[in-house]
Amino acid sequence: MMKLTKKRVVLFLLFIFPLICFLILSTGKNNFTKLPVVTKGVVDVSTLDTLQTFKDRISIVCFLGNDIDTQKGGFFNLNEKIYKKFIEYKKFQVIAIYPKGKEEEVKQLKKEISAFTDMVKWNFVAGSKEEIVTLHGSFNSGNALSNLYTSNVFLIDKNGNLRGRLTDADSKDGKLIGYNMNSVSELNAKLKDDVLVLFYEYYAAFKEKNENKADRKEVGL
Question: What is the extent of the structural domain holding 47?
């Protein structure tokens, strides 16, 4: 009988258990709850930088504001709890919006974060006050920016729609539209799970599409 060692338990928790969860979620059609669209067709980040886009990407969007230095804790939380978990996923990115004129502060933030991770999927985008307010306003989150900053980060799907929760037990009206990056528990228990659900949703759609193609081929269509 195989001895249940501490090493085997750790290996199971790190590799085998997540794989089992993935197989359960990805088997069959529509056997998991899709993440709700809470706002359709938000303003694309290409309006600030033509080299960037939300299209065909799963994006986490954050707003750095005018006082970047005092808000660093949340960005480190986002990097550790979310970015590092999904850096290997294709089509994943973090979009960090900051006001024009704050390039030096952004440079310092990037330097500090890069000491712990590869920044390849962090994209920093500068915009005017008007552009930033317009972009954030298109999310219809119900919360205004403060000094062009918010502790909430937002999840945008490949079609440029804002995703979130409509039946969140911890929210007053049940809606969770932004995720508080100052809350490690919220990042861990909610945003991470919701990003996974979104990836599984696209995986299931891709799988179903290929199965339908195979079925049509078999019947000569």
Answer: 33-203
Residue 30 structure tokens = 């529509």
Residue 8, in any domain of the structure: no
Nearest alpha-carbon partner for 135 in 66, 38, 51, 62: 62
Q: Is residue 140 situated within a structural domain?
A: yes
Taken as a whole, the chain contains a residue count of: 221
In a domain, 135, yes or no: yes
Could you tell me if 92 and 86 are in contact, meaning their C-beta atoms sit under 8 angstroms apart? Answer: yes
At 95-142, the pLDDT tens digits run: 999 999 999 999 999 999 999 899 999 999 999 999 999 999 999 998
| Closest to 62 measured CA to CA, from 79, 85, 50 | 79
Rg of the chain in Å (alpha carbons): 19
Give SS3 for 64.
Answer: strand
